[in-house]
Amino acid sequence: MNVGVAHSEVNPNTQVMNSRGMWLTYALGVGMLHIVLLSIPFFSVPVAWTLTNVIHNLGMYVFLHAVKGTPFETPDQGKARLLTHWEQLDYGVQFTSSRKFFTISPIILYFLASFYTKYDPTHFILNTVSLLTVLIPKLPQLHGVRIFGINKY
Question: Where are the domains of the chain?
Answer without folding.
Answer: 14-144
